[in-house]
Amino acid sequence: MQYQKILAVCDKELSGKILDKEINFEVKPEFYGTTEINEEKLSELFQEVNSANLIGNKSVSVALKKKIIEEKNIIKINNIPHAQVYFIKGE
Fold first, then answer.
1. In this structure, what is the dihedral angle of CA atoms 33, 36, 41, 47, given to the nearest 10 degrees?
2. 36-80 tens-digit pLDDT
3. What is the distance between the alpha carbons of residues 35 and 15, in angstroms, rounded to a whole number?
4. 91 CA to centre of own chain
5. How many domains does the chain have?
6. For the domain that residue 62 is a member of, what is the CATH number?
7. Is residue 77 part of a domain?
8. Confidence (pTM)
């Protein structure tokens, strides 16, 4: 059985914040983690995972810069960019 790896990344200043009470969108440290990484490390991690959940200007901009997502893939939650990515990898 092969396990799937999910990468959850948020901008540091969003950690622990409730972005939208109506849809109950909270940037929980339990999900997004507390380890700080730089753009280079994030780029490396994209190569190691099957999916990514990104919230925040910085996090989403790295995915845009690396052409992992396009503008049309981004939604805004109270004007904060959010994207989910699913990588399909061959064996």
1. 10
2. 999 999 999 999 999 999 999 999 999 999 999 999 999 999 999
3. 11
4. 24
5. 1
6. 3.30.1860.10
7. yes
8. 0.89
Strand partners, 8: 53
Contact 33, 7 (CB under 8 A): no
Q: Which two tokens stand for residue 39?
A: 């753009």
- The angle at the Cα of 73, spanning 69 to 74, to the nearest 5 degrees, equals 105
**Which residues are 52's β-sheet partners?**
7, 85
Residue 17: Cβ-neighbour burial (10 angstroms; 0-12, 13-18, 19+): middle
**Could you tell me which residues come within 8 angstroms of residue 84 by beta carbon, excluding any fewer than 6 positions away?**
51, 52, 53, 54
CA 80 to chain centre: 12
- What is the residue range of 15's domain? 6-86
For residue 76, what are the β-bridge partners?
81
Phi, psi of 84, rounded to the nearest 5 degrees: -120, 140
Find the helix or strand (DSSP H, E) in which 63 lies. Answer: helix 57-65
Q: Report yes or no on 1 lying in a domain.
A: no
